[in-house]
Each structure stands twice: as C-alpha cells, then as structure tokens.
Amino acid sequence: MNVLEQLRRAFVAATPEGGDPAAFALAVRPSTDPKFGDYQANGCMAIAKAAKKNPRELALEVAKVVDLAPMAGPPEVAGPGFLNVRLSDDWIARQLGDLLVDEKLGLSFPEHPKTVVVDYSSPNVAKPMHVGHLRSTVIGESLARIYSALGHKVIRDNHLGDWGSQFGMILWGWKNHRDEAAYAANPVAELARLYKLAQARIKPGETLRERYGKAISLDEAGKSAEARALFAKLAEGTTDTFEDVARKIAEARDVADATRAETVKLHAGDYENRVLWDQFMPHCLAALQAVYDRLDIKHDVHLGESFYDPMLADVVKDLETRGLAVESEGATVVFSEGFKAPFIVRKRDGAYNYATTDLATIQYRKATWDPDLLLYVVDHRQGDHFKQLFAVAKRWGYDGIAMEHVAFGTVLGQDRRPYKTRDGDVVGLESLLDEAIAEARKVVDENSAHLPEGQRRHVAEVVGLGAIKYADLSQNRMSDYVFDMARMVALSGNTATYLQYAYARIQSIFRKAETTPEAIRAARPPIALSNPAERALAVRVLRYPETLEFAAGELKPNILTDYLFDLANAYSTFYQECPVIKAESPERRDGRLALIDLTARTLRAGLSALGIGVVDEM
Ligand code: ARG
After folding, report:
1. Could you tell me the pTM of the whole model?
2. pLDDT at residue 201, rounded to an integer
3. Was domain 3-87 assigned CATH 2.60.40.10?
C-alpha cells in the first residue's frame, strides 16, 4: 500500500473551504524529524493566508474532521498550523504482518498499466563504449526496472547510432589504412583504430573551422597574425614547418570530404559499403553486448538509426503534405514557435539526419506499441534537440504521448574535468568495470578473508559493479559527478556496498539464529514496536511503495537511493539497540527476525530496481 497516497486521499476529503484539494494533498509529506510524527500535512498555512484566516484555527478544524482511521488517530496541530500524523502502532504491525507474505512488498499494480518506451544507452557503435555511455545505460536501466516493478509495461529500446558519419570514417579508414591481421585478431579494436585515425586526420581542419568559421590557406596565414599563431600552435611539439601545417590542413579537408562521401554512398545503397557495413556490424554489436552482459542489461529491442532509414523519405513527405515542413535555403525544415533555429529534416545535399530519424522513430513506436510515455535517457547537451523534436512531434499528431528527455550531467575526474585517461583518451567502460571489481576485491579481502576464493571473486564482482552503478544513480542526475573509485566501494556512507553489507548481515543473523526467512514468514509472528528504533525501521519499510512511485514520477533513481540509505541507517540503529537472537523472549526474537527479513527484502528489491545485486555473505 502507498501510505502517503492513502493519507493524501484522506486529507483531500478534509480540504478547508476555498483551498485547492490537489495542492492540499501535495502538502502532505513524510516528516523529516520523528518529533513531528511520521507524516506532516502543511497545507493549512497557504490556505489561511489566501483566505486571511488564522492558520492554527484552520488546522484545528481540519484535525477535527479528517478521518485517518485505521492508519492513524486525529493529527496533532503544531506550530503555526502544521498537522502531524503519527501512524498507529497496531496498524503498522498489522501492515507488516501482511507484507511478510506479500511478494510485492506492498506495491499494488495499476488497473491500467502504462506502456513506457525507455530509449537508453543508444551508443554510436563502432567505437568502444566509454565512461560517457555509463550514465545513460545505468539510469535508463534503473528507470526501466522501476517502471516494471510498479507493474507497467516497459519496452527497453537501444537506439543505436549505427548509421551516422562515424561509419563514413571507418569505411574511409578501411579502404585506405586497414590492417587485416589486426582486424582478424580483434575486429572492434581495429575499427576503433581506423575511426580514431580518421578523426585525427580531420582534426586540424576542424580546429581552424571552429576558430575562423572556415578553413584557411597558407596565403591567408601569411597575412594574419592570428592565423600565424594558430599555425604555430598546430605545429607545437612537432618539427612541422608552416608548409607542413598547411599541407595537413588541406589533407584534413580532403579526408573530411572523403569520409562524408563514404557515408553518402552507404546511405545511397552503394554495394561495397553496404557489404562492409554488414560485415562490421555484428562485431560492433557483440562488443556492446559483452558490456551489457557484464552490467546485466537486457534491451528488448536494438532498433538503431539504420532501421529507420527506409522510412525517412515518407516522413519528410508527410510533414510536407501537412504543411509542417517547408523549404528554407535549399533544406527542408520545420519551424516551431519559441525556437531560433528551424528543425532540419532534410539537409541541402538531400541527406536525412538525426532529427528525421527521431521523428520516424516516434511514428514507429506509436504504430508498434502505442506507448503512453517515451523516455529518452540522453546527455543534457541534447536538450535543444529533444525540445524541438517533441514540439514538432506534437504538431505532427503525437500529442497523446508524454515525452520526456531524461537528461544527465557529465562524469568528471578528480581534476573536475571530464573523466579521461592519462593520455587523454576517454576511459573505456570495460577497463573501468575491471578496475571497480579490483577495488572491491581489496575491500572483500580485507573484510572477508574467511570466504573461499571463488566466493570472494563473486562478491567482488557484485560489489564492484554495484558500486559503479550506485555512485551514478545516487546523484541528482542533472549534476556532474566526480568518479572516485575508492569512495564508491567504501563500506560506510551512501554506497551500494553499505546497503549490500546491511543485507548480508541480516542473512548472517538468520544463519546464526538457525532458522530461515521462509520459516519466519510462514509463522507470521507478531511484530512489536516497543523500541523507537524498531518502530522507526518499521515505518521505513512501509514507505517502499510510495518511494518507488515518487522516483518513477520524478524520473529520479536518486530518490530511491536516498530512501535505501535511510532504511539501512534505520536498520543500523535498530541493530545496535534491539538484540535479535538474544531478544527477551522467543516471541520477540521471531518478531524481530520478521522485521529484519522485511528490511532485507526491501533492500534487495530496491537495489534490484537500481540494477544492483546482493550476496548472502560478504
Ligand atoms: N546515439 C546518440 C548519441 O550517442 C544518442 C541517441 C539517443 N536516442 C535518440 N532517440 N536520439 O549521441
């Protein structure tokens, strides 16, 4: 049961005259301090202010009429007009008794489940996955799990970048610089090398274009001091003369043109390029899959950009027919109110682009799954693209679908700059996972030397991967965060390790008590709440459903991590103050075992909704 929602319903029915029931309901929240009860209704102040009434008197009136039975007695009026709700101990105990045999831990599935498409991970293939891909992958997976835990229908879609300009670079690299032996040994590494090579060749020209808005000739360089300085900069650390730099810039332009031409040929159905694409793709996908397998991520569909290619011409035609798309400076674009630049759906050279593909994707998703909600878990830098995409899609007739850009910030290194290796490369995701597992292994060796080798390896794996995911998910996703491996696997603090440890400790109590959770659940012993630490833990357990729903509504896994951390802290206090095995009577012992079983199950379910596992011993 969602306790918060039940209370809100009760308060809505008691909204004072002139108040907005929805706002009055929203002002009911969990209390931050147990002094003020378990929940607080703070809506009287606003209503009193608007109606020029005394807030305290208004609160007293609400307290008299609001019917919180059987959850709680009348609320207590405090301060200037707060209403403090204290849940009844009997009611809590009864709820816990029900939860003991409820596999869903109090979640009730909606009568009309939503269909939610989560577009996440979606890397540009043919480059190894790097730390930048971590956030979309981990946040998207968690949101998918949260929504399915709540009983919604979720489609996990990996919108791969498998059709873009990077393939032109690889095709160019392949045709001019391939190393067949290297490709045979490790195809993805060789493709990545070719991609990087193309990029490195193109770079000098890009640098110039960024600064001048155009490439610059040696002639011009001779005349402009600024260009001279730039040439000098490009030559820095090399023995290049001005002539060499000029030659490289000219070459950069040629390479850029050549790679573009390869992309155009691929899109136009060129036989050779298409054959190569078909040959490269399985290797690229296998490399991605290896990372997904390690992270325990299973997309339902991998519908990359290439999948939509055959639909793009019709999309643009349809937009034109409806008068949405118009010609502008040779390109086909859609203007939307409130945007400076138009949404380009066909470039001047006739090519369709990222925007066209995303429109086709919405059309396809609607026709295939008829979704209620589309979530795009993508870097915040694409914010403008999605705003415009949604605006165009709504006018195109898809206004019945809710669409959200689930944006996130950057992963930073200790130096607070985007996380890079020492030689300036972005950090590969695989090596990062290895590093986390190695770091976790240190913690395991230190704390659990008694475990056999095989088990320690397994624990390090679960802890290491959990650490990486949790560090990411426990941030407000919009903020950047600093990647700090040692802190991520620490046994104390807001880490997955701390929560996993609390879970394992509970399992060890069961082993010591020589009973099993199953036996306790079957016995359904009464759960007494005489100790405040016991009660505090019980109330936390009851808050799982409302927390999960809140996290889903806000699209913020960190709401769930905060809750789990709070739960584990409440457990820790309980553990210090309430003996379990040495409880004063067998009945109390069993009641406490029931409470910690519920705690462990909630920790496990919550971590699972984050994509994180647990172990019974660590
Ligand atoms: N491949 C894109 C990138 O790496 C992300 C795609 C996100 N999904 C989408 N439907 N646009 O930037």
Report:
1. 0.92
2. 87
3. no
